[in-house]
Amino acid sequence: MKISKAEKLANFNPSGVGVKNNNFIGLPFDESDAEVVFLPVPWDVTVSYGAGTATAAVNILEASSQLDLYDFDFPEAWKMGVFMRPLNEAMLLWSRENRKKSERYIHFLETGGNVDENAEMQELRSEIHSACEDLRKWVYEESLALLAEGKIVGLVGGDHSTPLGYIQALAEKYDDFGILHLDAHLDLREAYEGFTYSHASIFHNVLKLPQVSRMVSVGIRDYCREEVEFVQSQNGRVQVFYDGYVKKQVYKGNSLYSIYQNIIELLPENIYISFDIDVLNPHLCQATGTPVPGGLEFQEAMFLLKCVADSGRKVIGFDLCEVAGEGQEWDGNVGARVLYKLANVAGKTQGKLN
Q: Could you report the average pLDDT of every consecutive run of 10 residues in the chain (354 residues)?
């Protein structure tokens, strides 16, 4: 006999021991009665430095059981229901197979090889592209189905290439939305290393969607000339709050609150949040694939999310990417806390909280 959501709420002790029941923070919900569904995407085929984020969702789920449910900003948020889908093991295996191919290909590039003169490398690149395209379609279809059911979708990467299909699905539902992009990197390279769907090319691809009217990037501190020139070519559609710039403003006496208000004012009514864990200071994400000195402290990032929730704007979806995978407990611990806050902010702005 199926237990109703009301019964689950009545019988669950939010101050009790975290139960390892294969759901996020040991919550008692299933997909049918959860307002927020986390969609794990175990994929890190095109990462260009450290790998391992394909199992980030497993790491986050394992660490989440020791989190407390009480969120000071949204005390009753857990009641809306959050559910994490089981990891797609076949996809994880598929990722690992293609990662082996990309490692060979990247090593060839990094040792001075010319792909245009090597038929084997051209074939490898084509196979990787085909796999990444199939992954994009899968994410698109799964996201579209969840959105049709009225779910708030939180995509859990995997590398930062993984949300593209989800954002494309949102573009079918919303005529106009902005992206709040939290990251150490701009991710605006065109087909980085020859990979159309590179983790470093995600927002070059996203900005092809006319529905994305504005993107505001925060925490950025690692980028190339090509990306800076791309930003300049966008005539204000892309706004960047470089980490160094923000820090200098604070050092000069400007409040972080006022800077955050300036960031949020640039965004339209509907917002998608893309949170790459390496936006944080590396002591908070020590094993992420491409750590960069500097970045936001945990409470600085959480305060920005709270400011978004207070702004009256609607968070239509979100992703969390680049969290380190299995065996990196601290990264999973921090990632679980970020993911919970993202879910609560989205729930608040969509009227899902009491």
A: 89 88 93 97 91 95 94 95 96 95 93 94 95 97 98 97 98 98 97 92 98 98 96 97 97 97 98 98 95 97 98 98 96 98 98 88
* Complete domains list, the chain, with CATH: 32-349 (3.40.800.10)
pTM over 0.85: yes
Pair 194, 106: CB distance under 8 Å? no
Q: How far is C-alpha 315 from the geometric centre of its chain's CA atoms?
A: 13
d(CA 63, CA 259) in angstroms, rounded, equals 33
* Residue 187: exposure state from Cβ atoms within 10 A (0-12, 13-18, ≥19): buried
**Taking a C-beta distance cutoff of 8 angstroms, is the pair 146, 292 a contact?**
no
Which residues face 152 on adjacent strands?
A: 36
Question: What values do phi and psi take at 305, rounded to 5?
Answer: -65, -40
Q: At 285, is the secondary structure helix, strand, or coil?
A: coil
With vertex at residue 159, the alpha carbon angle to CA 156 and CA 161, rounded to the nearest 5 degrees, is: 100
- 270 Ramachandran zone, left/alpha/beta (phi>0; psi -120 to 50): beta
Cβ pair 158, 56 in contact under 8 A: yes
Count Cβ atoms below 10 Å from residue 238 Cβ, excluding itself. 22
Cβ neighbours of residue 253 closer than 8 Å, sequence gap 6 or more = none
Q: How far is CA 348 from the centre of its chain?
A: 19
Pinpoint the alpha helices (H) of the chain.
5-11, 56-64, 89-110, 119-148, 164-173, 202-206, 225-233, 243-251, 256-265, 298-310, 329-349
Structure tokens at 229: 């020139």
Report the candidate in 168, 170, 179 with the shortest Cα–Cα distance to residue 136.
168
* Crossing angle between the packed helical segments 256-265 and 298-310, to the nearest 10 degrees: 50
The CA distance from 316 to 222, in Å, is 28
**Look-up: residue for tokens 């402290």?**
297
Quick one: DSSP state of residue 113? -
